[in-house]
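Try this one yourself first.
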């Protein structure tokens, strides 16, 4: 298998490519570098995780039709033959022959699905990129629902980031608030981050419901500063009671 890979500027300089997030573009380059001599990759998700890209980045490449997915989990670079020409003495045929038979090559060298096999050109899996309200360009990103009342919508990537930040409990807070007040937010992930930022800023006032939910939580663990303030208050009350007793005796 050839060790070098090339990229056609007509593809990577196109508006469709440059309109994608940088993370999606990066994933495309990494997939292309690891493809076999016919443009097939059998571990796209592993490559995605290894470079820190999200599931959304892979979905964007599919929706934008820069890669073609197969039910087996294999993907192929759609414009592979525009990017690379490999000499016959260095060429190694792909081992993914079942997937290869599902493709045909257009006159311009682009892979497309073989309509003679009853598979439409716009591959069904491409059209199943999940539909949500948040979009990147024309690409829809999947949103899962969370909370007791199913009001909070987050992508897999957003949920993972909240988990890393220790903010999963705030999903329930937002869910309850939306249910009780009928509030609407454009981006639930951003809303949780804003609430958390306000909670950490002493000069910024939190919504009253947020304070109540956070500190009435039976699982909430007070900070060392809160424990000290509570101890000082108890001590002060005891001192005041002691002084009152002394005056009563007099």
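Now uncover the answer:
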């Amino acid at each position: 298998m050839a060790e070098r890979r090339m990229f056609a500027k007509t593809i990577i300089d196109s508006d469709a490519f440059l309109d994608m997030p940088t993370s999606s573009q990066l994933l495309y380059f990494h997939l292309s570098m690891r493809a076999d001599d016919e443009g097939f990759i059998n571990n796209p998700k592993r490559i995605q995780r290894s470079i820190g890209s999200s599931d959304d980045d892979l979905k964007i490449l599919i929706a934008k039709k820069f890669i073609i997915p197969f039910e087996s989990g294999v993907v192929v670079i759609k414009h592979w033959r525009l990017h690379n020409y490999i000499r016959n003495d260095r060429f190694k045929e792909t081992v993914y022959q079942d997937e290869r038979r599902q493709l045909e090559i257009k006159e311009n060298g682009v892979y497309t699905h073989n309509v003679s096999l009853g598979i439409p050109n716009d591959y069904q899996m491409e059209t199943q990129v999940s539909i949500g309200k948040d979009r990147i360009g024309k690409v829809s990103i999947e949103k899962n629902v969370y909370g007791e009342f199913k009001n909070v919508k987050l992508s897999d990537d957003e949920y993972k980031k909240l988990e890393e930040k220790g903010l999963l409990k705030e999903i329930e807070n937002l869910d309850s608030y939306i249910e009780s007040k009928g509030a609407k937010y454009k981006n639930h992930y951003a809303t949780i981050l804003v609430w958390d930022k306000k909670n950490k800023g002493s000069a910024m006032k939190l919504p009253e419901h947020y304070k109540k939910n956070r500190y009435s939580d039976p699982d909430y663990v007070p900070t060392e500063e809160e424990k000290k303030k509570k101890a000082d208050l108890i001590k002060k009350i005891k001192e005041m009671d002691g002084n009152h007793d002394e005056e009563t005796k007099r």
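Discussion: The chain has a mean pLDDT of 80. Residues 224-249 form the longest helix (26 residues).
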